[in-house]
Amino acid sequence: MSDIEIRDDREAGRLEAVADGEVVGHVEYFVLESPSRALVPVHTIVEPEHEGKGIAGSLARELYTIAERESIVVAPLCPYVVRWAERHPEVAPAADPELLRAAKEWLIAHPGRF
C-alpha cells in the first residue's frame, strides 16, 4: 500500500483517507455555525482490511490541523475522536461544553444527516 492521502470534502462533510486511489477510511463531520464556528466529527470509519494502520488517528489529527488552520475549534461527538483528543491534548484542546451541547442539539435537529 502506498502512502495515505487525506482530503477534505467539506461539501460532503467527509475527511477521507485515500490509499492507491481507494477511500480506506473517513470521518463524517459537520460545521457548526452557532454559538461559534466549529468542526464536529460524528463518525470515524476505517475499512476492516485497513484497521490497525493508524488511519483513524491520522484522520483525527488532520481534523485538528484543519481547525487550527481555519482558527476554529473541534467539538467532537465521535467516540473515537473524543478518545484520541484525550490522548493528544497538545494538539487537541478540550471543547467548550456549550459548543458540545450546541453540536448535539444540531444533530438532533437534523435527523438522518448521519
What would you note in describing this structure?
This protein is α+β, with helices and mostly antiparallel strands. The chain is built from three helices and five strands. A five-stranded mixed beta sheet has the order 1-2-3-4-5. A hairpin with a 5-residue loop joins strand 3 and strand 4. The longest helix has 15 residues, at 55-69. The N and C termini lie far apart (30 Å). The mean pLDDT is 95.
Order of helices and strands: EEEEHEHH
> Quick check: average pLDDT?
95
Tell me the distance between the termini: 30 Å
Extract low-pLDDT stretches. none
| CA-based gyration radius | 14 Å
Tell me how many strands there are: 5
In short:
By secondary structure, this protein is α+β, with helices and mostly antiparallel strands. The protein has helices at 55-69, 79-87, 97-109, and strands at residues 5-9, 14-19, 22-32, 38-46, 73-74.
Note the main attributes of this structure:
single chain; alpha+beta; 5-stranded mixed sheet; 29% strand
List the helices and strands and how they pair.
Blueprint (H helix, E strand, L loop, with lengths): L4 E5 L4 E6 L2 E11 L5 E9 L8 H15 L3 E2 L4 H9 L9 H13 L5
Parallel strand pairs: 4-5
Antiparallel strand pairs: 1-2, 2-3, 3-4
